[in-house]
Specification:
By secondary structure, the chain is mainly alpha-helical. Helix 1 runs antiparallel to helix 4. The protein has one domain.
């Protein structure tokens, strides 16, 4: 599935280039697949860091796509709620134990997946 065209960022005059959605989804699948292999601690840390970067890149892109929609648009409201949750997730620490670190990685994966969904849906709508 192709990515939507990146919208211009009206505040900076630049085009926002979100992370590659296919790459984000591949990382997400690695963490969330029902038949996923157990991950080493280093892999969990690496994936969490990558997902943080992906989320940080998707937030402004999804936010820019919402600007083209009417204020009372339901998909816009859902995307903005997802952005709020994503910003909260970025404030999470990495955790002190392996189970907590894995839990943080899974939460990041779910958030990145949701943002990717909104990015694709809003990109088609605009």
């Amino acid at each position: 599935m192709a990515n939507a065209t990146a919208p211009p960022d009206p505040d900076s005059g630049r085009t926002i280039v979100p992370p590659d959605i296919a790459t984000v989804r591949a990382t997400v699948r690695r963490l969330l697949a029902a038949d996923a292999e157990p991950l080493a601690a280093e892999e969990v840390a690496e994936m969490t860091a990558r997902l943080r970067e992906d989320i940080a890149g998707l937030i402004p892109s999804v936010e820019a796509l919402t600007r083209a929609l009417p204020k009372d648009d339901i998909p816009r409201a859902c995307a903005l709620a997802c952005i709020g949750e994503a910003q909260m997730r970025l404030r999470l620490g990495d955790g002190d134990t392996e189970p907590v670190r894995l839990s943080v990685a899974v939460r990041m994966a779910r958030t990145a997946n949701a943002l990717a969904d909104h990015h694709q849906a809003l990109g088609r709508a605009s």
